[in-house]
Please model this.
Amino acid sequence: MSRLETRAIHAGASHSAVGDPVLNILSPATSFYSHPDAVGFSANDLGDQAPYFYTRWSNPTTDLLAERLAALEGGEAGLTFSSGMAAISSLFLNRLRCGDHVIVSNVCYAGVAELARDILPKYGIRSTAVDTSDLAAIEAALRPETRLIHIETPANPILKLSDIAAIAALAHANGVECSVDSTMATPVATTPLALGADFVVHSLTKYIGGHSDALGGAIIGRKADLDAIQKEGLIHFGATLNPFAAWLILRGMETLPLRMKAHEANAGAVAAFLAAHPRVEQTYWPGLASHPQHELARRQMRNFSGMVSFSAKNGAALARQLAERVEVFSYAVSLGKTRSLLCYVPSDDIIRSSFGLEGRDAENYRAWTGDGTFRLSVGLEAPEDLIADLERALD
Model:
């Protein structure tokens, strides 16, 4: 099954025999299985061939989701979690030890930025946040104790890109692993493992699930690495994905390639409208020729995704106006849904709080986005209706 569209529906599932139901998404409705003697009382006794016993350890529905994600990403194995943050926390706490150092994107999902800056130091793990669109800045941040470079591309919320292949090569030349949060890109757009990354991370809550009805996260990578992460993250930290949520995400994943084509087309139309609007100062969408990293986007992304950001004068006042006037868009902070969402991220607030940027890094952030970023997650509505809604709200 070489085509992405086919793998999104069939990967990991056995072919139905005559008389079997055609739907091959497994029933999730159990937390334990009866097997008298195949598994010991401790999860430390688990082997590769252990039967299903307790859902916190493993479950056929979550396993099918993990296998299908690995097929889409081209990885040896996958592992699912209760949320994207659970996946990243489990990755960090498994790959890093007291005395280690991690480099993270200085613009990324706020929870990850806060985890690296505020939580990891409690365990003796130091972090450095750098502009990972600048390879020289990453190289300058490397230390003898650096063990991991974690990047997010496109970066939330300003859609700045990082060169995965170049960063993975730099990491490996220095004996360091590289992980990529590819939530905004999805495997439809980018397959980081093929570009040299060791791990790819997703919040399944967003595009992959796609329907605003389930929380989930995932890591895809080498099986030996994921086996170690499973024992810590799932069995001992308890970050297991609910099998019913896995069932919902599997259902959503079947239409992921088709949805991403529509998200991309709609986002392109909305981005072109915003780029020409007199109230808008800057518009960022990787598919726009005016995006500062458009050439990198063309090399690294097969789909430019449905995320658009823009800045405007008097952003805070405009945010209130948009929130009160939009009818097709919803003013909400999530992304990757069938319906279109928008929110405003004031620069001063996020620079001070989540990102903790100072000096040149703070200046560079403001140069990119001004006083604040309007982040749009463009959904699957008719693009004409989306544009008309924004036009009316911006007047």
Summary: The first helix runs from residue 4 to 10. The radius of gyration is 21 Å.
